[in-house]
Design brief:
By secondary structure, the chain is α+β, with helices and mostly antiparallel strands. The protein has twelve helices and 13 strands. The chain has a single domain, classed as Beta-lactamase. A nine-stranded antiparallel beta sheet has the order 3-2-1-12-11-10-9-8-7, sandwiched between helices. A two-stranded antiparallel sheet has the order 4-6. A hairpin with a 2-residue loop joins strand 10 and strand 11.
Length: 377
Amino acid sequence: MKIYILVFTTFVFTLYAGYSRPPKCQPLSADIHNETLTKLQKETCEKLNAPGAVLYVRFPDGSIWKKAYGLASIDDSGSQKIETDMQFRIASVTKTFIGSAILQLVGENRFHLNDNMEKLLPGFLNYGEKITVKMLLNHSSAIPNYATTDEFTDKWVENFTYNWSKEELFGFIKNEDLLDKPGHEGYYSNSNYYLLGLLIEKYSQKSLPEYLKDKIFDPIGLTNTYFPTTDKLGGKYADGYFDFNENGLFESNEVVTDQNPSAIWAAGMIVSDIHDLSLWIDELFTGTLITPQLQKIRLDMNMQLHGAPEFVKMGLAVASIDGAEGHTGAIPGFTSVLFRYKGADIIALSNCFHTKKDMGSVAETLLQKVKTQILDK
């Protein structure tokens, strides 16, 4: 099955579709827009046949709207309604956490943004002397994406709980040419963030789950966020569904909640909920866990992504898409968005992944509708 690859392995640019800037004529608050938000969430889930989704909007006046719609699980004996405090795999929104971890280590002089991979991980890449830490963070390394190779996707979609070694994953691209001159242009690649995870473990002397808990999750009170170490999820979570037969529907036998963390690892395996992500987006744009200088560099979004419109730019583990700043996420079973736009925060989490090309991402569709139907009016 190859149809899902483009959605999962590339940064998705649908957020600008239909974009317009009509004059602002309505106050922005949760109470005023309750009916519109309720309707657009319901209509999106029903149109895309989604089991469920959670949507959170914090308006510029500080008022908060959050609601769950649909089902957290589907089975023959019944179903469980989705709730706003449920956890989801957040997929590539994970990259924003990895970026902070790397910048913390840079701030501690464990290594530097301009250090190359041959120096930091000797012998791991054939072209490591050409690739710097900063290039990994803003996707300008031009390293091919192991997660788009047939060797990976064929095996992974057959067995989501297969335990991969890093040597096996990077063996798929080790002898491949770089996509471009490093540093010239952005090429979104999960390989970049797998390498960043290896740097975190080597230079902190902690496992990635331990480092994230000790240095990121705990300091800002993310009590429902964790990096799984087994196939199973714990706590109160929504099951994820993957459209194996490409019919645009989701059934009980299409559940893919259990996934081995080795497959996508540092590129997309964190589990969280909308409450913790509402705290995280504040940290992402204030940077209390890193130095002010590094925070400024993180938010300097000037790397053009190959094939994207001019207004899509990358910073260090964060993107700007025509004024919306944050990150999207998509992994079999789940889609997510975490964005700040016009002073509002929008977080959407869904528990399904479409493989039919014209269906799209539930979370990104919710974000786009909040932008166009509320924040741009």
